[in-house]
Write a structure and sequence with these properties.
Elements: E1 2-3, E2 10-16, E3 19-25, H1 28-39, H2 42-46, H3 50-65, H4 67-81, H5 85-96, H6 101-112, E4 122-123, E5 128-133, E6 136-141, H7 147-158, E7 162-166, H8 174-185, E8 193-196, H9 205-211, E9 215-219, H10 222-234, E10 238-242, E11 246-251, H11 257-269, E12 279-285, H12 290-307, H13 315-332, E13 339-343, E14 350-354, H14 360-363, E15 370-376, H15 379-389, E16 394-400, H16 404-413, E17 417-419, H17 438-442, E18 443-448
Parallel strand pairs: 1-3, 6-7, 6-9, 7-8, 9-10, 11-12, 11-16, 12-15, 14-15, 16-17
Antiparallel strand pairs: 2-3, 4-5, 5-18, 13-14
Helix pairs in contact: 3-8, 4-5, 11-12, 15-16
């Protein structure tokens, strides 16, 4: 299968679990010419009214919500991400709904305060306020969680900026497919959006792109985030940073253990714990029956394999999960009865109940339905552990309880979203991502006081 991005003539081949993709790769000069082309359209794009972009996104979402339309892409993404087609479809349906008209309108109102503020001047107590585009936004996508593509591109289009999207070598397909679906509705999308693929190792290519951009939105891991932050600092460019996050759940009360563990299982399964908002640790109040809790969580994960199965496209995923399971059990069982295992016989799911808190090495093993259950006697234990171990990587906390003081402490520490169990991967329109609003940050608030 060949993917023809907007520019570039060199063709490179990549194999994803038996799926061969031929990618149209750009060189540095190709990308710089594409930036020049997009910049010429800035004034014209500024005249695009918000309502027309909302309608565009709404129509596009409805195309993807049609299973007949999205099925082929789901099958391709399944091979690339090593997730089952059922899980891809489940994730895609949830996230495409965010682009429906009523949800986009709600997002704009919550983030910017007024649905029309990007089109005209809005009366305020001091005069008038308006939101202007930043100019050219460079979207740097790394990793393979395709959901970030949907919202990154959507917010970029709504901001009335021109947008250059660099696809990830780990998942080079969906950005292109999403772009083509937008162009099927409105061919002028290409005037304000371009999808490119290039070799990140090409000398100075990122530096050249950042220096010519007005804003960078980065989705990636710790190392790539550091590189992008340094470049944006060097050239004084606005950066919106996402990535290298860890999420967890705290179960302080559970009136119905089965209902609670069923919700937690839904959080764990999504994105196979690869997304920043997927839980890797479940802290449980020791007053709850811990063995019953762990067993039911294991049972729920087993049941979910019937509806959203785990995919095994290569042996390594299975072997590594079992090796990690054995390693953690040995590590946390040095003292008698210190750890108990609740898992499938194969690599489908792993629940480890341990009196020891996991270290960073353990947490980095928590992928593909692998989770630690850790008891606590006082919520200060959870606070102290999070502060000392993952404070720099916090994002979402699933919480079952009613301790508002604890929620205040955890959000003060750095947690940016608190949800009920089962809702960690579901963002309501207008809620923040990593503590910020992307559309707000992709636009500039200007005032008129004359």
């Amino acid at each position: 299968m060949k993917i023809n991005y907007e520019c570039g003539s060199e063709v490179v081949s990549k194999n994803f679990n038996g799926l061969k993709l031929e990618l149209n790769m750009s060189k540095k000069q190709d990308v710089l010419k594409e930036i020049e082309r997009l910049n010429k359209n800035r004034t014209m794009i500024h005249e695009t009214d918000t309502e027309s972009t909302i309608d565009l996104l709404d129509k596009c979402a409805k195309k993807w919500l049609d299973r007949e339309y999205s099925r082929r892409s789901a099958e391709i993404l399944s091979k690339i991400t090593n997730q089952s087609v059922q899980l891809i479809e489940y994730e895609m349906q949830n996230n495409m709904r965010m682009l429906l008209k009523e949800n986009i309108e709600k997002t704009i109102e919550e983030e910017l305060g007024d649905l029309n503020i990007m089109d005209k001047w809005i009366k305020t107590s001091y005069g008038y306020a308006h939101r202007q585009p930043r100019g050219l936004i460079f979207h740097n996508i790394s990793g393979n969680a395709f959901v970030v593509v949907i919202m990154s591109i959507a917010m970029g289009l709504l901001s009335k900026s021109v947008n250059l999207v660099k696809v990830s070598g780990d998942e080079p397909y969906f950005s292109y497919a999403f772009y083509k679906s937008l162009c099927e509705i409105d061919s002028t999308v290409k005037d304000r959006l371009s999808i490119v693929y290039f070799d990140s190792k090409e000398e100075n290519i990122y530096e050249n792109i950042v220096s010519k951009s007005d804003c960078v939105i980065h989705w990636g891991g710790e190392r790539s985030s550091e590189i992008m932050a340094n470049l944006c600092s060097k050239y004084n460019k606005h950066i919106i940073m996402h990535g290298a996050k860890i999420s967890f759940e705290v179960i302080d009360r559970a009136e119905d253990i089965l209902k609670c563990t069923n919700a937690i299982a839904k959080d764990i399964v999504c994105w196979e714990q690869k997304a920043c908002l997927s839980p890797r640790i479940v802290f449980v109040n020791e007053n709850i029956n811990l063995e019953e809790f762990s067993q039911k969580l294991s049972d729920n994960l087993r049941e979910m394999t019937n509806t959203v199965p785990k995919l095994y496209l290569n042996a390594w995923n299975s072997i590594k999960t079992i090796q990690d399971r054995q390693y953690c059990m040995i590590k946390h069982s040095l003292r008698e009865d210190n750890a108990k295992l609740y898992s499938s016989y194969n690599a489908d799911y792993t629940v480890i109940l341990t009196k020891d808190m996991p270290d960073k090495e353990d947490i980095n093993r928590c992928f593909y339905r692998f989770v630690f259950v850790c008891p606590y006697s006082n919520d200060n234990e959870v606070y102290k552990y999070v502060k000392e171990n993952i404070a720099d990587y916090l994002q979402t906390m699933g919480y079952s309880g009613d301790n508002q003081e604890f929620i205040e402490k955890m959000t003060l520490l750095g947690v940016s979203a608190v949800t009920r169990p089962g809702y960690m991967t579901l963002h309501y329109p207008g809620t923040s991502h990593d503590g910020i609003h992307n559309l707000y940050d992709m636009t500039l608030l200007v005032s008129r006081q004359v």
